[in-house]
Amino acid sequence: MPVVRDLRLLLRLRHFRRLLYVRLLSQGADGVYQVALAAYVVFSPEKQTSAAAIASAMAVLLLPYSLVGPFAGVLLDRWRRRQVFLYGNLLRALLAAATAALMIGHAPEWLFYVSALCVTAVNRFVLAGLSAALPRVVDAERLVLANSISPTAGTLAATAGGGLAFGVRIVASDSDAAVVLLGAFLYLCAALASLAMPRALLGPDRTPERPHLRTALADTARDLLAAVRYLAEPQRREAAWALASMTLMRFCYGALLVLLLMLCRYALSSTPDEGLRLLGLALAASGAGFFAAAVVTPAAAGRLGPARWIAVCSGAATVLEPALGLSFATGPLLVAAFVLGLTTQGAKIATDTIVQESVEDGFRGRIFSVYDVLFNVSFVGAAGVAALMLPPDGRSVVLIVFVALIYAGVAVAMARHRNRNGGDVSRETSPPR
Q1: Counting Cβ atoms within 10 Å, is residue 229 exposed (0-12), middle (13-18) or buried (19+)?
Q2: For a surface tag, which of 40, 233, 248, 376 has the fewest beta carbons within 10 Å of its beta carbon?
Q3: Within a domain: residue 391?
Q4: 432: which DSSP letter?
């Protein structure tokens, strides 16, 4: 099979393989850490969690970074990306260990959220840097395949990390602190794995400037404006449309995730532990969808074009999510989780490819950082909307129909844009070298 042949060739690339190791360890640690947080915040027996509480937790963890997130891209275009992976993961290992200490010491809840917020903030730098560095280790002909393998493998690693967290939690007598310490160890391993790559390999090419703080802030604002103007250029229109579509699909993902959390906690389980196990099954089904997207997307996006593939993914979600979710039964919801993983990751692979191929290396870090912030803002916004619409047990026909309408709008908009332009801009623009 051509995909298998290309995959073997891709994995022979030494530096791609090493960058992949960093992603797997880093996102595996993310999965461990996130399950520990979910268990501590949502599924603790002594807490009566509501959708509003979940939305508030997401806002505390994600919104503060989102307000300053675009500035991270400017730093990524100035700092050596390998050093971001090294020091970022070292810092996260220390912060995760601090979170475990706060859990053990029963510290005030606001202090726990501050610690978790810091881990999440550093995570944005690492993930944006991984996406920006990918074109430095693969050739243009295999970029779509690399975008299928690398982020999807990271998501699967996060899913595996979540499964490992469940296992450790059982062995350690439901100790969330022990799970967080495991995440800290994996962050440390990710930092050490980054040392296998040369310092300058991942770029950026230009020498980082070291101005005074006031000058740096002013330069950052000008650079961000330049990046926005760059993205608004006619030849980047495809990237702008893809980012807008992916932001809306991320909104849908966030709303359905809050619904799933509430269903697992109350409607579909009798105890918090049973609800946590059910959530684990749903996340595993979603992870299987991510894997399926990695297998299907290279051929589908190559045949249809990345923009049309986004339209197909959102169109499939329009039909299948309400068809499977409106029963509010365990079996169909697990299938719906698989579909959600497949369509969301398939669209993300296509969006990553469009952005990478139509954005020059000097702007790529900023664009991916803005991309990441759009993810956070839409995710938190979705949680807020879900909190307003969901009943206490999570059963909401209105929310599922609302999400289906958004998916339909994305499908129609991307299909019309693709037909109006007569082709993918990403295929007409020579990719950056």
Answers
A1: exposed
A2: 233
A3: yes
A4: P
